[in-house]
Amino acid sequence: MADQPTDAAPQEVPEEKVHQRTIMAELGEMTELESMCPRCEKNGTTRLMITMIPHFREVIVSSFDCPNCGERNNEIQFGGAYGEKHVHYELQVRNAKDMNRQIVKSEHATIQIPELDLEVPPQTQKGSLNTVEGILQQTIDGLKVDARLCSLKCTKRSKHSSQRVEEYRTGDKHFTVIIDDPAGNSYVEAYYDYYHTTVDPQLKLTTRERTEIDRQLLGLEIDYNSHRTVQQEDAVDRGEMDGEVIQIETECSACRKPGMCNMHQCDIPHFKDTIIMAFKCDFCGYKSNEVKSGGEVSKRGLKLTLRVENESDLRRDVLKSATSSLEIPEIELELTPGTMGGFFSTVEGTLSQIRDNLAKLPQAQFASGDSSLVNDGQSKHTLKAFVQDLEDLIALKRPFTMILDDPLANVYIQNPRAHLEGDDAKDPQLVAEEYDRTFEQEEDLGFHQMSTDAM
């Protein structure tokens, strides 16, 4: 056999064939192609469309339909690009409206519904664009197929599982949808308020760096020479967190076992930089979180007064520092500085946290029965009744006033108008008052002591 020339020029592809391999489509434009059916091997129709999912990215949605055998399937593609980080979504489904939330699931994602003991492992399904209800329906269809192929005993189990999933399709039962995707290409639609600023309280998104196992599963290169931990510790020493989650090894205050404290520096819009610290023990389950204000110390104190009148007010973001007091005059509630530490939540979340802390106290069970009566036989206001007052405020059975007062001005209540009109936007329900700190306040904060030490 004659040797093939090594420097032979590659054959040129005709210009017509080049154009046949390329599909030119604009955003939102539908493209139809004739393709072979994988079932009957006859010709069917494949429809392609590039669409933009709000707050996510552009994706390619493909749908195949065979008129001969009825074969149908759909798939979503991401152009071969992975997301920046591993994503983990937890959606609390509470009503029928939540059943219509859009869900983008990549082929590398795992879907879990703990209430149904349901788990869809990765690589078992292609990428798809669906809704919560659609995922449940897809599960029911899959169980029906399994029932036809399995034994009698397995068929009974599949029918029982199908009936359980069917009960959750109406949205009357509460359940949780968990999507864990190391590729970072999955997405769950969030519901926002009118001003499009409030975070959805039913949806929780957690992102983290991919582990070596994640990178192996995705076929990505592993950097064995990475010194990320050392760099992170150096960044903490320099005070340069750059918006990343920094992990510092610490000891659990409950069981004294080693654990990791997560620290994240974030910029709250229309406020200032803050540092959020969270700890969870893998041994005993102990959890704690704390918020620290970054930047320089304010020269004046700040008092915020919010009139809560509707549900949108309950969803306002609230930052309470460890040096601030909290007061609700309508129920004679007053938390002194240092109580509950610092935290970042919503108005509703703040009330719920206070309620839960009070409900755990043994005093909440006292003053019941005969001890709840005074000499004239009338019921007196107990801690248990006080917890009920907080329940009424959370249910918004009456308007109320929340007052945050901090001599260091490290408190914040969200002003929805600021997102549209700027920092100077006036909110009729929110009043901010700056004041000069008293001598006693500066002494409690240690300013006079620092001045004496400097001398």
Q: How is the main sheet built?
A: 5 strands, antiparallel
Residues in helix, %: 10-25%
- Spatial order of the strands forming the largest sheet: 8-7-10-5-12
Annotated CATH homologous superfamily of the largest domain: ZPR1, A/B domain
Helical run tally: 11
Principal-axes geometry comes out as: elongated
User: Over the alpha carbons, how many angstroms does the gyration radius reach?
Assistant: 29 Å
Contiguous runs where pLDDT drops below 50 for at least 5 residues = 1-23, 224-242, 370-380, 450-455
**CATH class label of the largest domain:** Mainly Beta
What features would you describe in this structure?
With 455 residues, the protein is an alpha+beta fold. The protein has four domains: 25-77, N-terminal domain of TfIIb; 86-207, ZPR1, A/B domain (Jelly Rolls); 227-293, Single Sheet (N-terminal domain of TfIIb), CATH 2.20.25; 301-364 and 383-454, Jelly Rolls. The protein has helices spanning 15-21, 132-149, 152-168, 212-218, 228-238, 311-314, 347-359, 383-394, 418-421, 439-445, 447-454; strands at 30-36, 43-52, 58-65, 72-77, 86-93, 102-105, 110-113, 118-120, 128-131, 175-181, 187-188, 203-208, 245-251, 258-267, 273-280, 287-293, 301-308, 317-320, 325-328, 333-335, 343-346, 400-406, 412-413, 430-435. A five-stranded antiparallel beta sheet has the order 8-7-10-5-12, with no helix packed on it. Strands 20-19-22-17-24 form a five-stranded antiparallel beta sheet. A four-stranded antiparallel beta sheet has the order 1-2-3-4, with no helix packed on it. Helix 2 (132-149) runs antiparallel to helix 3. The chain starts with 14 loop residues before the first helix and ends with a helix.
